[in-house]
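Morning!

This is the sequence you dropped in the shared folder:
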Amino acid sequence: MNNENKVTENTSMVRSISVTFQLLDTMVRAGEPMRITEIARQMGESKAKVHRHLSTLRSLGVVEQEKTSEKYRLGWKLFKLGQAAFEQFDLKAIAEPHMARLRDLTGQSAVLAVASGGEAVVISSMDSSGSTSLKISAVPGTVPPLTASAQGRIVLAYSSDDYKNEVLSKNIKSYNDKSITDVDEIKARLDNIKNRLYETAIEEVMLGFSTIAAPILDADNNLIGTVGIIGSVQFIADPPTPQQIAHVQSCASTISATFASRAYKGVADPF
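The structure's back. Tokens below.
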């Protein structure tokens, strides 16, 4: 094989890999099984080319095809690969040094949550180092309410429109008279989160408890998780101080930069 043929073959292989990842990205964004026609339309590729790639991915166990609808969904092997990547690139290990600084700067407990299954799940908490005997924290494994917590609303803000509509079409639970239950108000807050890159929840779930959280984003502005502070309303008032918000955003900015995100550029300086 001459050098010209090698170059052509290598270029073709690289193009094939690019199309494969574009295909997988399209399925990830959809968040639900898809037909070949819709995948091809969103990718701007021919159905024949998409079908070839799907057939190969299916034979490798990366995607699966539903028997009844013939739609394609992400496969179990991809899940296992994701789990392995997560273990090697542990958000908790990356975030905790910066959470410690956030805790020390604010005097409040720092909380880290990930987006999982359309909800926010707390995976790490660092209790306040202050001298007060009152310690307000969040237990790992806790799932903050989607519509009544800062973490939950951030996850909802970065979810698909279909998922938002599904959540907001149900009865919005009220935890007390400070819980936001008006759908239009919740929608306005969700829109605002992506603009201001933080959210607050002041006594919405439990009276006396306040939270500020900011999104952790990747290079494509996809949500990875949230980081924030939780404390007594005596120390995190309504509204919180600009300095408290800035500290939370700086922490989120620092962690997001690890994932090549530039979302906080011009908004908050990293630690």
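Headline: The first helix runs from residue 3 to 30.

More detail when I'm at my desk.
O.
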